[in-house]
């Protein structure tokens, strides 16, 4: 960028086709296909003593369920209920480094 400052940038795409998360192939636990986009841009001294970076993760804000399954004891009044964990939504962060 200049004689004293370098700029670095990167982007990555993560694609996953439709798949079923469980071993019993329950269609309710099927995860739709998705593409996630992550990006990073960094300004740094060309002597590598300092840097500041801005990161964006899951910029497409895709909802992705992981580890779904039937509710335990579903036969005791919870039939047809499921649980699952969600991956993180869109997020941003700033990273700063100083080496001395």
Keywords for this entry:
single chain, 100 residues, 4-stranded antiparallel β-sheet, two-stranded antiparallel ribbon, 8 strands
Layout of secondary structure:
Elements (H helix, E strand, L loop, with lengths): L4 E12 L2 E2 L9 E2 L2 E12 L4 E8 L7 E6 L11 E5 L4 E8 L2
Antiparallel strand pairs: 1-4, 2-3, 4-5, 5-8, 6-7
How would you portray this structure in words?
The protein is mostly beta strands. The protein has one domain. It contains no helices and eight strands. The chain has strands at residues 5-16, 19-20, 30-31, 34-45, 50-57, 65-70, 82-86, 91-98. It has a four-stranded antiparallel sheet, with no helix packed on it. A two-stranded antiparallel ribbon has the order 2-3. Strand 4 (34-45) and strand 5 form a beta hairpin. The protein is elongated. The protein starts with a strand and ends with a strand. The model has no long low-confidence stretch (mean pLDDT 88).
């Amino acid at each position: 960028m200049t004689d004293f400052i370098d700029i670095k940038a990167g982007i990555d795409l993560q694609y996953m086709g439709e798949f079923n998360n469980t071993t019993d192939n329950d269609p309710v636990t099927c995860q739709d296909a998705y593409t996630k986009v992550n990006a990073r841009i960094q300004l740094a001294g060309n002597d590598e003593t300092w840097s500041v970076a801005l990161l964006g993760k899951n910029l497409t804000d895709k909802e992705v369920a992981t580890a779904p399954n039937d509710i335990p004891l579903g036969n005791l009044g919870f039939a047809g209920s499921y649980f699952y964990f969600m991956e993180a939504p869109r997020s941003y962060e700033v990273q700063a480094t100083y080496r001395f």
